Amino acid sequence: MTVNMWKAADVARKVIDNKELFILDVRNADAFEDWKIEGHQFDYLNIPYFELLDGVEEILPRIPTDKDVLVVCAKEGSSVMVAEMLSDAGLTVGYLEGGMKSWSMYLEPIKVGDLADGGELYQFVRLGKGCLSYMVVSGDEAAIIDAVRFTEVFTKFAEEKNITIKHVFDTHLHADHISGGRAIAAATGATYYLPPKDAEEVVYDYTPLEDGLTVKVGTSQINVGAVYSPGHTIGSTSFVVDGKYLLTGDILFIDSIGRPDLAGLAEDWVADLRESLYVRYRALAEDLIVCPAHFMIIDELNEDGTVAKRLGDLFAENHGLNVEDEKVFRSMVTDNLPPQPHAYQEIRHVNMGKIMPTDEEQTEMEIGPNRCAVR
């Protein structure tokens, strides 16, 4: 029959459009359990490829013929082999170009909503890693918040819209993915901002991102206002964009809250985390739309693929915002943490400018799921 090559963008549309897909994942069981392609209507079969070297006859009854079938492996080669074996057995199947490596790297830009006087807010959804980056567009200017390392996605998007990237922000020193902020600023001449309390060990120049800072973007004078909100890191800073959207970095997510331990200071930062969530955010307007820097589970995606929700709804629904006892809260965010992100210390050092790994090394550092949250 036929073997089709699928790009990560094709799989992303299946996720965002809530379509059915059957995935035959031929990685080892532990890799599959740790991290897989998630979709609301996806079904899975995990059979390590080495178990299929003698043929696929035994699994044929488990492969549906009434929906798309995609074979996935780590980097592509094994999935091509298995897909061809299934094709020889009479099935029409596809394989994922570049495997899970390409899935981890793919970004899908989605419009979140309109801003004043024709401005727009875009969210760049990294479905395979749970990272969320943002572009504020107004007139012929743009500001980028929490860019991942695939800088050409942002610069090409700006070129297509005929806008100039003027400002680039990181809400904090990231530990689970490599920032593209400095590289974008260097390529475009934009100003790069970083919270100074997170920058004590960085070896490059930056513009301090401090509480109360307001930066104008474009002709419509959209304010990108900074709100100091420590807890995930000591410098973590949120943004209120146009009085409408609250970009929370890694402090508050839709279904969870940020973890305070990735700099080894969980006990020291718990109080800051609680104050940011229970005092600073409570003082903000509940109609603000929360747009976090990460998501953890597929259920956090809206029907259009965006990850965003009203702050007042999170106060009512997010468990991490409803722990009245401070001792219980402290225990929750220090004693019951998920595994730390893969290579997070090395990633922090990259983002400090202390080491400069190759592209391949950076890819390996970032492989795996988002682990910034306490849920």
Describe the structure.
The chain is an alpha/beta fold. It is 27% helix and 25% strand. It is built from eleven helices and 20 strands. The protein has helices at 8-16, 29-34, 77-88, 99-105, 151-160, 181-188, 266-280, 311-317, 326-335, 344-352, 359-366; strands at residues 3-6, 21-25, 42-46, 69-72, 93-96, 108-114, 120-126, 131-138, 141-145, 164-169, 191-194, 207-208, 214-217, 222-228, 237-241, 245-249, 257-258, 289-292, 309-310, 373-374. The strands form four sheets. Strands 6-7-8-9-10-11-12 form a seven-stranded mixed β-sheet. It has a six-stranded mixed β-sheet with strand order 13-14-15-16-18-19. It has a five-stranded parallel β-sheet with strand order 1-5-4-2-3. Helix 5 crosses helix 6 and helix 7 (266-280) packs across helix 9 (326-335). The model has no long low-confidence stretch (mean pLDDT 93).
Which helices and strands appear, and what pairs or packs with what?
Elements: E1 3-6, H1 8-16, E2 21-25, H2 29-34, E3 42-46, E4 69-72, H3 77-88, E5 93-96, H4 99-105, E6 108-114, E7 120-126, E8 131-138, E9 141-145, H5 151-160, E10 164-169, H6 181-188, E11 191-194, E12 207-208, E13 214-217, E14 222-228, E15 237-241, E16 245-249, E17 257-258, H7 266-280, E18 289-292, E19 309-310, H8 311-317, H9 326-335, H10 344-352, H11 359-366, E20 373-374
Parallel strand pairs: 1-5, 2-3, 2-4, 4-5, 9-10, 10-11, 11-12, 16-18
Antiparallel strand pairs: 6-7, 7-8, 8-9, 13-14, 14-15, 15-16, 17-20, 18-19
